[in-house]
UniProtKB/TrEMBL annotation:
It comes from the Bacteria. Pfam families: DUF6152. This is DUF6152 family protein.
């Protein structure tokens, strides 16, 4: 059961690495926790969930919780889900005046 849960969580193949998205948007919701951070942004009046990296990795690379706080403007570069769900797996984020590699 543990292996199944881990495989389900790390199913990066569900994202389309052939289609890179680069939206710039205001953060509507922000989560700074395990197993990874996440934010919600609005792009063309549609809400998108954005999967970030683990908090420890973001902190080590210079991203802070304040950088992705609600109301901040961020640019995400990442891949959308293949099934059409409005979710992006972020490869990098520009926030707080810096670009941070997440993977």
């Amino acid at each position: 059961m543990i292996a199944t849960a881990a495989a389900a969580h790390h199913g990066w193949s569900s994202y389309d690495a052939e289609r890179t998205l680069r939206p710039t948007a205001q953060v509507l919701e922000s989560s700074w926790g395990s197993p990874h951070g996440s934010i919600v942004i609005a792009v063309d009046d549609q809400r998108w969930d954005v999967v970030l990296a683990p908090v420890s990795r973001m902190q080590a690379r210079g991203l802070t919780q304040a950088d992705i706080a609600v109301g901040r403007t961020v640019t995400i570069e990442g891949y959308p889900r293949r099934d059409g769900t409005r979710e992006i797996r972020a490869e990098r984020i520009t926030a707080g005046g810096k670009t941070v590699e997440l993977r």
